[in-house]
Amino acid sequence: MANFANLQVFANYQKYIDNEQEIRENIRIKVREIEHLAKEATIQLQIIHSDLSKIEYACLEARKQISACSNVYHQLAELIPVGQYYRYSDHWTYITQRLVFLIAMVIYLEAGFLVNRETVAEMLGLKTSHTEGFHLDIEDYLMGILQMASELSRFATNSVTMGDYDRPLNISHFMANLNSGFRLLNLKNDGLRKRFDALKYDVKKIEEVVYDISLRGLRNNCKQVNEENAVSSNEK
Amino acid sequence: MSQGPRSRHNNRRNQPKQKNVERSNSTDEQNPVVKAFQEYARELDSKHDRYERIVKLSRDITIEAKRIIFLLHTIDGRKDNRTKVLEEAEQRLNKVIEFNFKSVAQELIGQDPYQYRCAYSPGLQEFIEAYSFMEYFKFGNEGTDALSDWNVLQDKMVYENSGKEISEATDFSQKSVDDTSNDKIESAPMDKDNINNFKFLVDPTEYILGVADLTGELMRRCINSLGSGETVVCLETCKVLQQFYTGYVSLNVQRCRELSRKIYTMRQSLLKTENVCYNVKVRGGEAAKWGAVFENKISDDLDEGFY
């Protein structure tokens, strides 16, 4: 009976856990590298709020940082034993969401549409399905997209300040699409759900901006708007 | 889909705004965003469904394990029912392995077991508690053997595929888990007939957490046997508890809240048992019983946090 509590078990477990902690430390180093690159890209993209003419340049610079990330992700993927993605994933979910946000922002600024999950995964050098290896988790993708929504509502206000009255309309349309997309999801009561609940405030803010512009006939292609206004006032 | 009316409503609300944008003809079905999100919705749903199914299975395991623990507590030196109860407990535990864990393992074929860890971990821990408690009695008989570690359990939880649910993706994770953790399971033969076998991954951390719960049962046993006057058992359980505690304090684990909480509880149990043994020594079995009744009321509502 005296030997029942086998101390060898604990020694083995200590070995096991030491091994795990070593992997975690290596992961943390790589994640920090990615964080650094993402920070650079974030800084580059801040220019859009103060200078519209530099958007193209900012996107190019951000793209450079993002493609550098894909290398580090590749190294990170090598650290993770196959099939243990979710054992360690808490280390990189946050930064991956951040990068999804950055990519979605860049693509929106360049082309005006919502980047899909496949493209994000491709740009980061990740897979889309966990059976293929180190992948982009769907929830991370969605969280990143939601982050973009708040950034866009800020961008809408600032572009009005800088005299670009067409952009908020474009953003508003884009956000309406996004919103109807998210409504298709059956979200559980988790973090994603909470973040989604905040989306309506971003949508509301943009709609207010659009309202202000339309009310004052401030849009660049004023003629059409005036006609619209005339029609709607007649209806009333 | 149930979202039909909802999205239609949404669409209507947006219409005035979309009128002057050139996309006015885009219906929901053609919208690439909506299309993509329908795909995401499917993926999320299947994940949530699987999660819920595993939670259900895990709950059944928890209930059965708890019952087995109660059963084991009925072992009483006076009634001489040890072999009979042990036999039944072992049988029921094997049944849990054969059926319940098999269903969980089936759900996890081709999945990353760590993704669904929260769903099955309560059941697994409770099961490990019951299993090791059974072993405690079993080896107490012979007096030689020690508690089996996670590899022994892991070996029991390898199942043969009945044939119809063979998937190409049959757990790629199985191999990897074996060669990275320092499991002693020979991974080579496993790999070969991987197509026919699948297993339920017994994570060492879950194992350690489950065994930590065992100490609560040992404490309970100690108190119970004091009640029935078997003071030898009190001293015995106390010794085992002390050893377990030594083992647990020897661990150096970072970032595991759950474990440090359990070690704290374990210390409480340990102090309680040690106090019982002290009373036995000083006052003799008869009087210590009364002390135990008044001082250690907590013994019954000490639980593992779920239920």
What does the model show?
- The complex is a heterodimer of chains A (236) and B (307).
- By secondary structure, chain A is mainly alpha-helical.
- Chain A contains ten helices and no strands.
- The longest helix of chain A is centred in the N-terminal third of the chain and has 39 residues.
- Chain A is elongated, with a radius of gyration of 23 Å.
- The termini of chain A are far apart.
- The model of chain A has no long low-confidence stretch (mean pLDDT 89).
- In chain B, helix 2 runs antiparallel to helix 3, helix 2 runs parallel beside helix 4 and helix 9 packs antiparallel against helix 10.
- Chain B is 70% helix and 2% strand.
- Chain B is elongated and about 85 Å long.
- The two termini of chain B are 36 Å apart.
- Chain B has two domains: 129 residues, Up-down Bundle (Methane Monooxygenase Hydroxylase, Chain G, domain 1); 94 residues, Translin, domain 2 (Methane Monooxygenase Hydroxylase, Chain G, domain 1, Up-down Bundle).
- The longest helix of chain B is centred in the N-terminal third of the chain and has 42 residues.
- At the A-B interface, helix 1, helix 3, helix 6 and helix 7 of A face helix 1, helix 2, helix 4, helix 6 and helix 8 of B.
Summarize this structure as a short list of keywords or feature phrases.
heterodimer; A: about 240 residues; mainly alpha; Methane Monooxygenase Hydroxylase, Chain G, domain 1; 10 helices; about 75% helix; B: about 300 residues; 2 domains; about 70% helix; elongated; disordered C terminus
Q: What is the CATH class of the largest domain in chain B?
A: Mainly Alpha
Distance between the termini of chain A: 90 Å
Q: What is the domain total for the residues of chain B?
A: 2
**Main beta sheet of chain A, described?**
none
CATH superfamily of the largest domain in chain A: Translin, domain 1
How many distinct domains of chain A? Answer: 2
Mean pLDDT level of chain A: 89
CATH homologous superfamily descriptor of the largest domain in chain B: Translin, domain 1
What name does the CATH topology of the largest domain in chain B carry? Methane Monooxygenase Hydroxylase, Chain G, domain 1
**If you consult CATH, what is the topology of the largest domain in chain A?**
Methane Monooxygenase Hydroxylase, Chain G, domain 1
Could you tell me the number of beta strands of chain B? 2
Second rung of CATH, namely the architecture of the largest domain in chain B: Up-down Bundle
Task: Sketch the major β-sheet of chain B.
Answer: 2 strands, antiparallel
- Whole-number average pLDDT of chain B? 76
Mind telling me the C-alpha Rg of chain B? 26 Å
Overall 3D form of chain B: elongated
Distance between the termini of chain B: 36 Å
Q: What is the percent of helical residues of chain A?
A: over 70%
Say what oligomer this is. Answer: heterodimer
